[in-house]
């Protein structure tokens, strides 16, 4: 299959931003107001064999505990974004669970 | 949630091409060498007072039957591409007649039901009466025969009709005597 793509009158950065917002709202939407400002950095890593690798770094503010950040690289940018979004969702869950443990005593820690 | 996106050293057209290629492979790769050149046109539609929609037109070569094309519009670029690729896959399937086993089974069952109905109707239908002119020609004028008898007569050749008429006449004569 030979593919030819022609793009006209379309802002691809805007489309990518919508895609990333969709993925992040899927992963972080359940945390509501705990999620503050999110910065997503997408960059190409040249010098990789077999093509250019894409890096996706997501840094998000978890109120009131500070910032958390993850980074993923892949040859496919969308795969990198998906994996980074999934990781940051799990990281939020981990941090909030740890904060709850610290706040409401360490029953689980004592039992363990 | 506020998302800030920063892009560096990345060709987004290349990224979109790889995404489109993946979606198209997912949709039409099962047709193998039947798929020729595929041209994807992505363009923005500026509506008055509305959010800008994106139009995705995919033209593909189906060997050896010619060109096929689908078009989808959506506010989201990726949604438009996904829908257009899905439609193209279904169109390929339709044109090649693959994946229509269910449809064929449905059609054959419908045909079978219709045949059964026709057979039933034929078995219960009364034989057609001959027109009066043809009855006269075959020497049946004035004879008010039953439908079954008419059907029997209709099947006989003309010579046998005459013999039968003669037999009837002799029978009448013999009964007179």
Description:
Chain A has 112 residues and is of the alpha+beta class. Chain A has a domain of 71 residues: 2-Layer Sandwich (Double Stranded RNA Binding Domain), CATH 3.30.160. In chain A, strands 2-3-4 form a 3-stranded antiparallel sheet, covered by helices on one side. In chain A, 23% of the residues are buried. The mean pLDDT of chain A is 86. Chain B is built from 6 helices and 4 strands, in the order E-H-E-E-E-H-H-H-H-H.
- The CATH topology of one domain in chain A is Double Stranded RNA Binding Domain
The CATH homology group name of the largest domain in chain B:
Ribosome hibernation promotion factor-like
Mean pLDDT of chain A: 86
Examine the secondary-structure arrangement and name the CATH architecture of one domain in chain A.
2-Layer Sandwich
Radius of gyration of chain A: 18 Å
Number of strand segments of chain B = 4
Order of helices and strands of chain B: EHEEEHHHHH
| Share in helix of chain A | 40-55%
Biggest sheet architecture of chain A:
3 strands, antiparallel
SSE-based structural type of chain A = alpha+beta
Q: Per the principal axes of the C-alpha atoms, what is the gross shape of chain B? A: rod-shaped
In the CATH hierarchy, the third-tier topology of the largest domain in chain B is known as Double Stranded RNA Binding Domain
Uncertain runs of chain B with pLDDT below 50, 5 residues or more? none
Q: pLDDT below 50 for ≥5 consecutive residues: which ranges of chain A?
A: none
Structure annotation, total helices of chain B: 6
Q: Termini distance of chain B?
A: 118 Å
- CATH class (first level) name of the largest domain in chain B: Alpha Beta
Strand content of chain A: 25-35%
């Amino acid at each position: 299959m030979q593919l030819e793509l022609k793009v006209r009158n379309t802002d691809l950065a805007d489309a990518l931003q919508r895609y990333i917002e969709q993925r992040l709202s899927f992963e972080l939407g359940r945390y509501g107001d705990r999620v503050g400002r999110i910065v997503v950095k997408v960059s190409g890593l040249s010098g990789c064999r077999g093509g250019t690798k894409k890096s996706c770094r997501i840094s998000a503010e978890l109120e009131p505990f500070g910032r958390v950040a993850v980074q993923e690289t892949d040859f496919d940018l969308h795969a990198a974004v998906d994996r980074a979004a999934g990781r940051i969702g799990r990281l939020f869950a981990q941090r909030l669970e740890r904060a709850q443990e610290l706040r409401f005593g360490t029953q689980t820690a004592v039992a363990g | 949630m506020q998302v800030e996106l920063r892009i560096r050293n990345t060709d987004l057209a290349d990224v979109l091409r790889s995404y489109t290629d993946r979606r198209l492979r997912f949709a039409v790769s099962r047709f193998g060498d039947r798929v020729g050149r595929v041209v994807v046109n992505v363009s923005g539609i500026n509506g008055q007072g509305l959010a800008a929609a994106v139009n995705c037109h995919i033209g593909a070569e189906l060997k050896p039957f010619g060109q096929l094309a689908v078009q989808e519009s959506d506010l989201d670029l990726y949604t438009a591409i996904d829908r257009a690729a899905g439609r193209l896959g279904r169109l390929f399937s339709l044109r090649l007649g693959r994946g229509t086993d269910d449809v064929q089974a449905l059609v054959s069952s419908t045909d079978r039901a219709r045949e059964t109905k026709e057979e039933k109707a034929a078995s219960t239908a009364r034989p057609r009466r001959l027109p009066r002119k043809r009855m006269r020609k075959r020497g049946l004028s004035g004879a008010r025969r039953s439908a079954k008898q008419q059907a029997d007569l209709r099947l006989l050749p003309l010579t046998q009709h005459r013999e039968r008429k003669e037999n009837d006449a002799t029978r009448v004569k013999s009964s007179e005597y």
